[in-house]
């Protein structure tokens, strides 16, 4: 029977994580088709690894998981090369990039199908259809081309997550040794990457999750999550967990159940949530979170400016006042709030854009004065194609355009866009970008992230000392001395390298 080759392009230089996206796809065909994973993170020459399988003639189907940025950078040339050298191969892309940019992906002449959103049902359905020469035109979440037309099929309802096949950890272990996926992090010596829910119930207009999940969220039960984690702990000695869910904490009930279960395992954990959601949690629930090992939570604070929170369609009840008050509340429970900010939103005049940036720089300093332990992540607003949203309309009206050809995405300027450092939005002048980046450098100097475990106390003190005058006087220009120290010590930026 025909087999399936699955590829996880390189996404990190070190501290590899369990490749959950491609593992979910492997699980979706487990017991139906034989499969192998090639992990670009773990191969010196991933093309050679794939070519070895393809040359056998047993693997007519190849699935790539692709997120923007470095994964895309490896995915494009390798997909092209595979199509050129093995033209009979059917190439299927899934993940955040092809879901949000399906048109440019399908218009390339080397990707045959894209899956828009979850592939757990769509992928096996497509392989079955191709194997049996039956129609694939009705498969939900599928995008394909007929002649010059790109067809985007209807979205599937979100799948009950407890009904999915378990992830094939043992098989991954045979291919690449699981131990190597359980890295040393700020949380522990063997850290699991786990995804316990999909989607998000909110519709923030800057967020890539929204066009795919359309305000829907489905979670695995606390018991199932616990069982998986216990398995990874017992079999491979895992001692910490990073939850990669977009919004782990949607249900206080599920969080409490999970906290109760994991408490006895003496593990440390981290997840992503919303300030206004957790601010509604009872004190007992937050205390239980900490007791169960939750050490730090990532929150999309975005901005302290209520007008912009509205423009971002942040939803819920989040406000600048609440963001500040909540930083204080977390202190009481000894949980580090990791606040992410999105600077550089459009405004009618350049002066207003600059004012907004300056407002948030001061707001971030206010948060730090309330809770110096709070971690700060600064992104620059990079548009996502959320068709129909007011913000996206504004972005297009301002003259912003995505690349028209798939290859253009690997141009260095678009790579920077993906990393949300220099987003190419017409309203942001180089001066504004520099202001944001310089402030970020000084902030990271004065308050180095706790997640950089190689930065010892001496280095921390030194860089804090060097940055002190700048931080306290607001003179952020030309922070070359801090940059030099960061480069020398390979300072870690969690927003790029993982949290
Ligand atoms: C883990 C992670 C990383 C890891 C790498 C993971 C890895 N594979 O090694 C690290 C930390 C390195 C990383 C980095 C970046 N990431 Co990242 N990352 C994630 C995260 C948190 C989880 C991904 C995951 O495992 N999901 C679990 C699986 C089960 O879900 P899934 O990927 O959606 O897969 C389903 C479908 O998409 C589909 N599918 C996926 N792959 C395939 C393949 C095939 C063949 C098929 C058919 C279907 C299919 O089916 C799956 C099952 O239903 C997501 C957010 C999220 N919660 O998903 C962001 C996310 C994907 N990252 C994102 C970004 C932008 C980045 C960066 C490029 C930039 C940044 N500053 O964050 C950096 C790049 C730096 C780098 N070095 O690569 C964005 C993408 C936004 C966008 N515009 O599309 C996301 C969505 C975060 C966000 N909310 O903004 N990331
Ligand atoms: S709450 Fe977070 S994950 Fe959900 S839509 Fe907003 S930014 Fe995206």
Tags for this model:
alpha/beta, 43% helix, 499 residues, single chain, pyruvate-formate lyase- activating enzyme, binds cobalamin, 6-stranded parallel sheet, binds iron/sulfur cluster, 2 domains, Rossmann fold
Q: Care to describe what's here?
A:
It is a single chain. The protein has 21 helices and 15 strands. It has 499 residues and is α/β, with parallel strands linked by helices. It has helices spanning 20-29, 46-55, 70-85, 96-100, 102-107, 122-132, 169-176, 209-213, 222-236, 252-263, 275-278, 283-291, 306-311, 320-333, 350-370, 390-397, 412-418, 430-446, 457-473, 480-488, 494-497, and strands at 4-8, 35-39, 61-65, 90-94, 113-115, 142-146, 149-152, 191-194, 197-199, 217-219, 240-243, 268-273, 294-302, 336-343, 375-380. Strand 1 (4-8), helix 1 (20-29) and strand 2 (35-39) form a beta-alpha-beta unit. 43% of the residues lie in helices and 15% in strands. The protein folds into two domains: 4-152, Rossmann fold; 182-428, Alpha-Beta Horseshoe (pyruvate-formate lyase- activating enzyme), CATH 3.80.30. The strands form three sheets. A seven-stranded mixed sheet has the order 2-1-3-4-5-6-7, sandwiched between helices. Strands 8-11-12-13-14-15 form a six-stranded parallel sheet. A two-stranded antiparallel ribbon has the order 9-10. It starts with a strand and ends with a helix. Iron/sulfur cluster is lined by residues 200, 202-204, 207, 209-210, 246-247, 274, 300.
């Amino acid at each position: 029977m025909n087999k399936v080759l699955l590829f996880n392009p390189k996404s990190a230089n070190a501290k590899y994580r369990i490749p959950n996206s491609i593992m979910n796809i492997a699980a979706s065909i487990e017991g139906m088709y034989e499969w192998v994973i090639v992990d670009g993170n773990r191969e010196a020459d991933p093309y050679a690894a794939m070519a070895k399988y393809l040359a056998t003639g047993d693997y007519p189907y190849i699935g790539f998981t692709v997120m923007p940025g470095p994964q895309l950078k490896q995915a494009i040339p390798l997909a092209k090369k595979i199509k050129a050298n093995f033209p009979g191969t059917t190439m299927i892309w899934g993940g955040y990039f092809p879901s949000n940019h399906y048109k440019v992906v399908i218009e390339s002449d080397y990707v045959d199908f894209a899956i828009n959103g979850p592939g757990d049902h769509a992928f096996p359905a497509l392989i079955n259809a191709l194997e049996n020469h039956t129609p694939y035109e009705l498969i939900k979440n599928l995008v394909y081309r007929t002649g010059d037309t790109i067809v985007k099929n209807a979205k599937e309802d979100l799948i009950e997550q407890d009904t999915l096949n378990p992830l094939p950890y043992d098989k991954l272990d045979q291919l690449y040794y699981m131990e190597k996926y359980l890295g040393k992090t700020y949380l522990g010596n063997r850290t699991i990457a786990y995804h316990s829910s999909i989607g998000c119930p909110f519709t923030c207009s800057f967020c890539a999750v929204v066009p795919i999940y359309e305000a829907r969220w489905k979670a695995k039960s606390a018991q199932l999550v616990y069982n998986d984690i216990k398995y990874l702990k017992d079999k491979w000695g895992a001692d910490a967990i990073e939850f990669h869910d977009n919004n782990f904490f949607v249900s206080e009930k599920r969080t409490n159940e999970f906290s109760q279960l994991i408490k006895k395992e003496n593990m440390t954990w981290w997840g992503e949530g919303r300030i206004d959601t957790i601010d509604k949690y009872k004190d007992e629930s937050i205390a239980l979170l900490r007791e169960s090992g939750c050490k730090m939570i990532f929150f999309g604070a975005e901005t302290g400016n209520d007008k912009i929170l509205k423009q971002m369609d942040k939803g819920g009840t989040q406000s600048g006042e609440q963001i500040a008050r909540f930083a204080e509340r977390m202190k009481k429970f000894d949980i580090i709030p990791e606040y992410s900010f999105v600077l550089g939103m459009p405004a009618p005049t350049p002066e207003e854009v600059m004012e907004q940036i300056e407002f948030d720089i001061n707001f971030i300093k206010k948060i730090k004065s309330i809770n110096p332990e709070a971690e700060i992540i600064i992104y620059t607003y990079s548009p996502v194609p959320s068709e129909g949203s007011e913000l996206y309309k504004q972005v297009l009206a301002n003259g912003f355009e995505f690349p028209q050809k798939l290859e253009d995405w690997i141009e260095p300027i678009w790579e920077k866009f993906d990393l949300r450092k220099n987003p190419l939005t017409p309203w942001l002048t180089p001066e504004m970008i520099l202001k944001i980046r310089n402030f970020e450098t000084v902030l990271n100097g004065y308050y180095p992230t706790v997640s950089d475990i190689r930065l010892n106390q001496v280095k921390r003190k030194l860089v804090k000392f060097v940055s002190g005058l700048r931080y306290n006087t607001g003179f952020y220009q030309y922070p070359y001395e801090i940059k030099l120290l960061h480069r020398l010590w390979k300072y870690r930026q969690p927003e790029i390298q993982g949290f």
